[in-house]
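Predict structure. Chain length: 277.
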Amino acid sequence: MTNPSTLRERALAFRALHIPGRPLVLPNAWDAASARVVEDAGAAAVATTSAGLAWSLGAADGDRLDRERAVGALTAVASAVRVPVSADIEGGYAPDPQGVAATVRAVLAAGAVGVNIEDALHEGPEPLRPVAEQAERIAAARAAADAQDVPLFVNARIDTYLRGAGGVDRTLERAAAFLAAGADGIFVPGAVDPETVKLLVDGVDGPLNILIGPGSPSVAALAGLGVARVSAGSGLAEAAYAEVRRVARELLDTGTYDVPAGGPGYGGLNKLLAGRP
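Prediction complete.
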């Protein structure tokens, strides 16, 4: 378990990285090796991707992974780097607020100082969890961290755009409720149109996190709009697995093995992991 004073210091350092107009850029990792590679590339913090983490454990994304396995993987990530770590915990790996609080306690014990908690529902007719119910879950997360005197950065993910469940007005309504419940920042994946992003920046009373990907504005453009945090989500994991499939197909179909130059290679990766904290 990470020393409580060290955990508090990391949490404060992570919190200070959220500056509107100078966004924290997070190329999301999914295991210890990818976390070390991201840190070595110069990232000021490491955030996990729930999708990539689930895939690495042989599970699908979307609240299908159990807390124990997810936290075990998170522990490996946090132990592999020196920079602050934030954990994507999907809906909290629990059916109720008490369970979300238990997950947060486990996340802190693993050494992470931030969490993403999403409001999407993956079963049933409704795409999003009711506002009041999600607010209770965020409040439980906040209380669990406060009880340990750790200023955990709670990033409330709102899936209105990803799930086609509303626009700016509904997003801002949910954001206000979640911030009032104890969230520190708001994450709106799927919102990439500059006009929309600017409306969200102006309407959210806290740091705004945007998901970057093919076709989205650049980090510089998002910075100009006042965004405070930019995430890659599952993008790096998708790219890594796409390269695995490409090389595997080449080897199986043609018998050749053409790996692009520029990678760290066996020696580089071995050295990187041998020197982990």
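Summary: The radius of gyration is 19 Å.
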